[in-house]
Amino acid sequence: MTVSILLFLPVVAALLVLLFKNEAVKHAALFFSIIELAVAIYFLAGFVPDASVQYAVDATWIPQMGVHFTAGIDGISMVMVLLSTVLVPLIILTTYKHQYKNAKAFYALILFMQAGMLTVFTALDGFLFYVGWEAALIPIYFICALWGGENRIRITIKFFIYTFAGSLFMLLGIIYLALQTPSGIYDLRSFYDLSLNLTQQSWVFWAFFIAFAIKMPVFPFHTWQPDTYTEAPTAGTMMLSGIMLKMGIYGVIRWLIPNAPAGFLQWQNLAMILAVIGIVYASLIAFNQKDGKRLVAYSSIAHVGLIAAGIFAWTTQGVQGAMIQMLSHGINVVGMFFIWDIISRRLNTRDISQMGGIAKVAPNFSIAFLIILLGTVALPLTNGFVGEFLLLKGVYNYNIWFAAVAGLTIIFGAVYMLRMYKGVMQGEANELTLTFTDISGSEKLVLGIICVLIIAIGVYPQPILHISEAAVTNLVNTVSAKFVNAKY
Amino acid sequence: MTTLIIISVLPIVILYLGLYKVQKALLPVTIIGLLAAMTAAITQWNDSAVPIYHGMMLFNNFSVAFSVVSIVSTILILLLSKGYFERISSHIAEYYAIILFSLAGIIVMVSYHNLVMLFIGIEIMSVSLYILAGIRKKDFASNEAALKYFLMGAFSTGFLLFGIALIYGASGSFDLDGIRDWIVTHSRSNDPLFYTGVMLIIVGLCFKVGAAPFHFWTPDVYEGAPSLITLFMSTVVKVAGFAAFLRLFSACFFTISSFWAPVLLVITIITLFIGNITALYQQSFKRMMAFSSISHAGYLLFAIVALGAGSANSIFVYAAAYSIASIIAFGALILVKQQTRTDNFDGFNGLAKNNPFLALVLTVSMLSLAGIPLTAGFIGKFFMFSGALAHYNTLLVVVAVVNAIISIFYYFRVIIAMYFRSAERAEVEVPAYYKFVLGISAIATIVIGVYPAFISALI
């Protein structure tokens, strides 16, 4: 069993889904995504949580360019694989009450995108990494542009150009690194062995940083994000915010910092400042949002800013915090967008000021909303808390003032999230919200699973932390050793 | 050599067939002849390559590879022509014959070993093209295209010939090896005659491949000529031009690259920007393709600016990818134009609804031209970027990346029109042979994009 099964299964599934008709398409897509999850769980069961790469595959791809199909799973990748294989079935379930035109294409694109993202999370070859990176982008572009809201054409092309621009510079960085290796190969481990001088590393740092900063997004590269999240169909938004932005974070951990340690050290402060500005800036904008989906979009920028800051601090705790927070944020943000999907489908609006009193008419819904909200604002014993605590600790070790400012995200987050909850759920029900019917069927199932995950990870995060611990410690220490060399 | 003979005899046969009004046999005979020529070329693969006919020609793997690409593209283009020429004029044998004559010139261009043969090859090709551009005799735009192309072409041929003459004057040889040896033995001499000759040859060749600032003929000629002829010019002819360009520079002028590389660098950068930025403002799909072909000339020039062992390979892969994608694009344009009578982007609105196949292959073609991974176009760009970065041409690569980003706007305009804009329209009828050509091309694009190893190790 190698990781290639995990990578090719969704591609095959995407093609197979095209053969189905009508309602069967949904079931087929769900079925295949659950099989993918089962494969991932099988891998997890046999996974030894040390720093080694497991289930590796290595095949020649373009011999004269030194390109190999090299992929494998280590602790860091394992968490990411779990994240994408758990979320995709959930996301497909959230679409059960939607009727999409040309549904075949919709689900095929989602599965194809999953293949791209899994490639990114497991690739150990620069070329493969880039191919996966773009292979995830094309489907989401079509998902957003075909099934999105009114302004979708203008906004999605902006999104596409933004991310494509960033990734092309990353491609240059990858080619540059490969040309520096003694035998001109794209293998990640031979990239790690390079010792470039500071100027070279600074260029490599920026080539990668721009791509990842756009994807995450980090201030000031975030301008595509709120519009795209708002205009995309909700399943697309979930794919983007739940999994795809983690490609950027994962890229920083695996490709940016270890490939250019001295360059990173040179620009660490700036990266940190950008991340912290992003946190405060996005939180302040979130305060004024009337549109619920947009509010969640901005809160996502703030949360990702904290994850980025934790990684840029580059301590074991910070990176471990980032790992678990990526998983938690994925679960929470999918839940949050689903909540807004349910609301907007029932009330045909996302304007918070028109709502109120839904808690009275829909008790189950209000409980789920509350649990997801508490996870998002990082209340202790929810999944958000573990990650944000570790992240803040990492930032604190780097610089206490950054930690103080970054910590605002928790306070701000609590304020705007609770205000949103109050506006939507509490108070007197008006004419509009009286028509609100409580959740049922697939909605109940999805929200139930998400709530269980939020509490389970919050109460007992150790198994998840354990998966990535050895790999993270090893990576952080190896790279930090290079920092020392770079300094003296 | 057999290839060249077959392709030279074939058009004469075709003309006789036309004389005896055997209209139905024209296309099959042409295709069979071309397949025979291609087989003849392939059998020469890895043969001991020595210059023949007193060093006039050299059929090495380079020539074989580019001959095959040219022949295959021509076959695909001719398959699209079924029923197309009949609508333009009644003398359809002429079309096949002239295209084949042009192809004969192209075979010479990719296998010359003497500057005289280069010149003869270019002339055979160009004279045929002047006629083809103006073949719609009653059409104003077609006449304009032919005249413009002829005047500018003759002008540039003058430069080329003058350059060849000057190089002969300095080195006393037309032979590629002879010139190379002269350069090696006179490495320290600063012979102005010789270097002026090199510059003039660059001007002449840049005109032929449509690189800026010698590109002014391209948009009008491409727009005025019938779509299929435009397709032939922008793929086969352009690729042959680059093969000739590369052959000359890698065989002869390799050692003096410090002299001409900066010049070509500037030309490349101008070409990229002019092609891309002008393409951005076009309303006509055909004109957009014309300008985008200028920008692709810029990318192809990369391999010559960063001349190295991998250059032939890069040009080969890029040219193959570009040709296949262009064939799809023009094939789709011809079909759409039959229905809507317009070249504009608007003509593609809502195409995906009733013609999912056509929309899908055109999307693949546009993604390939834009250089998105998992398509052949990306592999081409990847090779070009690697080659240029290996020579530390960072500026060039950054400029290329900026241009690749710009190009997204106009390539995606087609995709957006097809999928996201709605228009009331009937289904565009796609004949079977169109389905075949477009389908094969789309599959080839994806296959090369996913597993390029089998094509990229050829030369």
TrEMBL record, chain A:
It is found in: Endomembrane system; Membrane. One of its GO terms (cellular component) is endomembrane system. Residues 125-409 form the NADH:quinone oxidoreductase/Mrp antiporter transmembrane domain. InterPro entries: NADH_Q_OxRdtase_chainM/4 (IPR010227), NADH_UbQ_OxRdtase (IPR003918), ND/Mrp_TM (IPR001750). GO terms for molecular function: NADH dehydrogenase (ubiquinone) activity; NADH dehydrogenase activity; ubiquinone binding. It is a multi-pass membrane protein. The chain crosses the membrane at residues 6-22, 29-49, 69-93, 105-124, 130-147, 159-179, 203-224, 236-257, 269-288, 295-316, 322-343, 364-386, 398-418, 445-465. GO terms for biological process: ATP synthesis coupled electron transport; electron transport coupled proton transport. It comes from the Bacteria. Keywords: Membrane, Transmembrane, Transmembrane helix. NCBIfam families: NDH_I_M. Belongs to the complex I subunit 4 family. This is NADH-quinone oxidoreductase subunit M. It comes from Mucilaginibacter terrigena.
From TrEMBL, chain B:
Coiled coil: none annotated. GO terms for molecular function: NADH dehydrogenase (quinone) (non-electrogenic) activity; NADH dehydrogenase (ubiquinone) activity; quinone binding. InterPro entries: NADH-Q_OxRdtase_suN/2, ND/Mrp_TM. The chain crosses the membrane at residues 6-22, 29-46, 58-80, 92-110, 116-135, 147-168, 193-216, 228-247, 259-281, 288-309, 315-336, 357-380, 392-412, 433-454. It is a multi-pass membrane protein. Its EC number is 7.1.1.-. Its main location: membrane. NDH-1 shuttles electrons from NADH, via FMN and iron-sulfur (Fe-S) centers, to quinones in the respiratory chain. The immediate electron acceptor for the enzyme in this species is believed to be a menaquinone. Couples the redox reaction to proton translocation (for every two electrons transferred, four hydrogen ions are translocated across the cytoplasmic membrane), and thus conserves the redox energy in a proton gradient. PANTHER family: NADH DEHYDROGENASE. This is NADH-quinone oxidoreductase subunit N. It comes from Mucilaginibacter terrigena.
